[in-house]
Specification:
alpha/beta, 2 domains, 327 residues, Rossmann fold, seven-stranded parallel sheet, binds (2R)-2,3-dihydroxypropanoic acid, five-stranded parallel sheet
């Protein structure tokens, strides 16, 4: 392709606040249109913006489904998302139409694992609650049993989903002198041996773990695997942490488990829906720490994710291999 032809490659970016580095990269070779509202684009505006484009650079907020692909039309060659999760994209439908999909694996693994550890510690050691006490006069004196919570040393940590992020969490957790790391995954992961993690059934994971960490992708098979039955199987002292997708959890069952002390506490970076409505019972629970889906929100990670998105699109335009194609 020569440059004048290439410059006709039209790309729609669904957010006005995508990190600049990727946007600038795209602008060098493509005719770029950027959504002009800072909030997630409305479905209506999204549909009217994608008509005739060659590429879409989206986020997990936009549903890339049949209707959208129909509206975009036959020019569409590539969709790239600034996320490793792709449950918002109808992958089979894209494949059927020969539309390539780009995503951002690897580059956010460290950031998400770090945040998972932060949330785990914030939940077990009750940091938000303790801060609130300090700021509102609850701190009367150092007290021997006040604000206590379970430590990681000597604990059994169970990780559901032992892909890139699950493994990165395991490696970090290990440095806290945990006694055992177990994992549940569809297939055995060869990397587990070196990490020292043992594969168990989902039920065993629930029964044995002091900390249950959800790092699994959302698929039809994993939807709401953390249901009433699952919480009932967990230890009464268990702490549940989710940094993958809210859809893996039956949230009403979790609320009930937290209210009835079926489990001790939960730390959630992801919920259903997002944002979590302010009147959600979860916000009223002292034993629940909620973050607004910031797992990958490390500055470097976000910049690299944006760069990768741009490179994914440019690769399709230039006929080279996409650096991160979802196959
Ligand atoms: C992802 O990448 O899927 C996260 O949820 C956002 O970074």
């Amino acid at each position: 392709r020569n440059m004048s032809e290439a410059s006709k490659f039209r790309v729609f970016i669904t957010r006005s606040d995508m990190p600049e580095v990727g946007v600038e990269l795209l602008k060098k070779q493509c005719d770029v249109t950027i959504c002009d509202t800072p909030l997630p684009i409305s479905r209506k505006d999204l549909l009217s913006s994608v008509s005739g484009v060659d590429g879409i650079y989206c986020s997990l907020n936009e549903k890339i489904d049949k209707e959208l692909l129909d509206t975009a039309g036959s020019n569409l060659k590539v969709v790239t998302t600034i996320s490793v999760g792709h449950d918002h994209i109808d992958v089979p439908e894209c494949k059927k139409r020969g539309i390539r999909i780009g995503y951002t694996p690897n580059v956010l693994t460290d950031a998400t694992a770090e945040l998972t550890l932060a949330l785990l510690l914030a939940t077990s050691r009750r940091l938000p609650e303790a801060m609130h006490e300090a700021q509102t006069g609850g701190w009367k004196s150092w007290a021997p049993t006040w604000m206590t919570g379970p430590g990681l040393a000597g604990a059994t940590v169970g990780i559901a989903g032992f892909g890139r992020i699950g493994q990165a969490v395991a490696k970090r957790v290990k440095s806290f002198n945990t006694s055992k790391i177990i994992y549940f995954n569809r297939s055995e992961r060869p990397e587990a041996k070196e990490i020292g993690a043992i594969k168990v059934s989902f039920e065993e994971l629930l029964v044995q773990s002091d900390f249950v960490i959800c790092c699994a992708a959302l698929t039809p098979e994993t939807k709401e695997i953390f249901n009433k039955d699952a919480f009932n199987k967990m230890k009464k002292t268990a702490i549940f942490v989710n940094t993958s997708r809210g859809g893996l959890v039956d949230q009403d069952a979790l609320i009930e488990a937290l209210q009835n002390n079926t489990i001790r506490a939960a730390g959630l970076d992801v919920t259903t829906p997002e944002p979590l409505p302010l009147n959600s019972p979860l916000f009223k629970l002292k034993n629940c720490v909620i973050l607004p889906h910031i797992g990958s929100a490390a500055i470097d990670a976000r910049n690299t994710m944006s760069e990768l998105c741009a490179k994914n699109i440019l690769a399709v335009l230039n006929g080279t291999e996409m650096p991160a194609e979802l196959k």
